[in-house]
Amino acid sequence: METRKLYYEDSHLRHFCATVTGCEQSEKGWLVTLNATAFYPEGGGQACDLGSLNGVKVLAVYEEGERILHLCDGALEVGVAVEGEIDWTRRFDLMQQHSGEHIVSGLIHQKFGGMNTGFHVGTTEMEVDFDVPLTALQVAEVERCANEAVWQNLEIQCWTPDPQELPTVFYRRKRELPWPVRIVRVPGYDSCACCGVHVKKTGEIGLIKILSCVSLRGGVRLRLVCGKRAYDWVAHVFEENRLVSQVFSVPMEQTGGGAQKMNEALAAEKYRAAGLQSRVAALIAESYVNHGDVLHFEDGLDSAGIRQLAERIAAVCGGRAAVFSGSDGNYGYCLASTDGDLRDLCKEMNAQLCGRGGGKPCFQQGSVQTTQAQIRAFFEG
Fold first, then answer.
1. Are 131 and 219 in contact (CB under 8 A)?
2. N or C: lower Cβ tally within 10 Å for the chain?
3. CB 362 within 8 A of CB 340
4. pTM (2 decimals)?
5. Rounded CA separation 32/226 (Å)
């Protein structure tokens, strides 16, 4: 028996009454069929509705032929009248995403000839794939125009043309489709074959925000959010920007400039620190002239500093230089020599001192998870 699709008659229907026409137990629960339903089954890139039937949870909904199956966590008696309740927060969110995607896809098709080749609504954002490349300026133009469509509060038209009318209806599609074809149209922006449910007017979408655009197989993948998801994203980024403005002591609308100044100052300090580190390394190396093998601990060095100091010492000591920097539990190291092969020594040290690393025969670098005392015991016996 075909199920009447109330969700197509009114996409905002939250509560409805129906009669149970079937109930079969399955591995995951009970498969319930109704004579009519407002529960949208999964399809067209849109997730199914959730909710309840007479208080019994609806865990999933999918279409099988002319029937719509409701996977429930309890049985319902055939012939009994039930009250269905849709999880409206979920449904409205999914409709906001789907309707917003149609506007964006329609604009990319209109302006750049791009076709939507993939569409997925996740729990936090959407991913939509297109078969044309887009620049940052083009993406910004699409976002601006998409939100203009929202502000116009246009009526979204959904209908199934009869077989005679269908050939005269323009709609975005990847291939010819057999009748019946359901059309979803946003006047002036998009006309597309779609089996999903949508908001009634574009104003209900609220906001469309494109988060990123990356190249993918000759085209692009857009990440975007609509409606409450877009508001939540903007609110989160606003708060993060407020915190950044406090750190940089600049107005929120000038954090980019503040970050640039901070980056320039940091680069200057790094250059200054590298110069100081080089001079310190030279002074330390002088103390090891003709010393032979050297084991040296120095606080506060990064990996480049450890390497520089080891190479400076190895150049003058006449033996092998082993330089460590860090604290008990985690030391960075560098073993250096002007000749000879340090690989066996490094391998043995890593094995005994919980280390990892390697390199060229006369240069080995890595880290050990041990103490200074254990390092000294290894090298000094």
1. yes
2. C
3. yes
4. 0.74
5. 33
Using one digit for the tens of pLDDT, what is the confidence trace for 207-244?
Answer: 999 999 999 999 999 999 999 999 999 999 999 989 88
CB atoms within 10 A of CB 331: 23
Closest CA to 360 of 347, 342, 344, 345: 342
Residue 176: count of CB within 10 angstroms of its CB: 6
Note the pLDDT tens digit of each residue in 190-200.
999 988 999 99
Tokens standing for residue 9? 């008659």
Q: Give the least confident one: 47-56, 183-192, 199-208, 256-265.
A: 256-265
Domains of the chain: 4-86 (2.40.30.130), 92-235 (3.30.980.10), 270-380 (3.10.310.40)
Whether 176 contacts 24, CB under 8 Å: no
pLDDT of residue 276: 83
The encoded tokens of residue 217 equal 């197989």
Cα distances (angstroms) measured from residue 315 to each of 20, 35, 234, 257: 88, 88, 56, 44
What whole-number distance in Å separates Cα of residue 263 and Cα of residue 142? 32
Statement: residue 174 has pLDDT above 70? no
